[in-house]
Amino acid sequence: MAMESMEMSKVQQLYDACNIIFSSGKEGFPTLRHIRLLQDILDDMNPMDVGIDGLSDARSLEEESSLRSPDGLILGQAVSQITYVHVHECDDFSIGIFCFPAGATFPLHDHPHMVVLSKLLYGSALMKSYDWTTTPNSYPRKSGIAKMVAEDRVLEAPCKASVLFSRSGGNIHSFTALTPCAILDVLAPPYSEEFDRPSTYFAEIPIPSLSGYAVLEEIDLPDDFRVAGAAYAGPELTVESDYC
Ligand SMILES: [Fe+2]
């Protein structure tokens, strides 16, 4: 077995920073300095850092149907449906990657009471996002008026990591893959039904008299929306079980 590099992997750096910044012992909101530190780590990451080959064409491999390269990396170009690669989750944060085939859409959804950092690892995508203008009604279904933050913004890798907050930065968003692409997400804290942080999907109803605003109404998860899972293939993560 080859000698392992003593250098800490980037995903380990990301985990360690999240563990310090978002761990339960911390009071209050992460500071701007903390957010920038996490963005700097994410900005320095590429698909290989999380076990994904975003470039190779699967057709050049013997097993055309395989999602894996001969050395076990996930082949981003071979993904045929949105595929979630789970890296880590604890009570305080989660780290994972959504791989998209070209043309796939992740419908409009929210991130209640969360900070979310996202890094497009390869490819390009269209993003639309909103923020609530007021606290949305939650009965009988979640709905409210939201202000558009981004309308079909084109994201193209390599690009900087983005951040959204519970009330700003585009907390409700959708993605459509223009090419095969992958988005590395850090959610703090993660979704949780138990702690009133469910994932909710929305339909948008334009307000003709109010340009840039829409009524967002909760909808059931679209029937044709499926997310597959794939095992993480990146550098092994050392997790502090005392914290998580
Ligand atoms: Fe999201």
Summarize the structure.
This protein is mostly beta strands. It has a single domain (10-230), classed as Jelly Rolls. It contains 2 helices and 14 strands, in the order ααββββββββββββββ.
Which structural class matches the secondary elements?
Answer: mainly beta
How does the major sheet shape up? 6 strands, mixed
- CATH architecture grouping: Sandwich
**Number of separate strands:** 14
Low-confidence stretches: none
Q: What is the overall number of helices?
A: 2
Strand order of the largest sheet: 9-6-11-4-3-14
CATH homologous superfamily heading: Jelly Rolls
Order of helices and strands: HHEEEEEEEEEEEEEE
Q: What percentage of amino acids are in beta strands?
A: 35-45%
Work out the helicity level.
Answer: 10-25%
Assembly state here? Answer: single chain
Structure commentary:
This protein is mainly β and 244 residues long. The chain has a single domain (10-230), classed as Jelly Rolls (Sandwich). It is 10% helix and 36% strand. The strands form three sheets. The chain has a six-stranded mixed beta sheet with strand order 9-6-11-4-3-14, with helices on one face. Strand 12 (201-206) and strand 13 (213-219) form a beta hairpin. Helix 1 runs antiparallel to helix 2 (32-43). The longest helix is centred in the N-terminal third of the chain and has 13 residues, at 10-22. The radius of gyration is 18 Å and the shape is globular. It starts with 9 loop residues before the first helix and ends in a 14-residue tail after the last strand. The chain binds fe (ii) ion. Fe (ii) ion (FE2) binds next to loops.
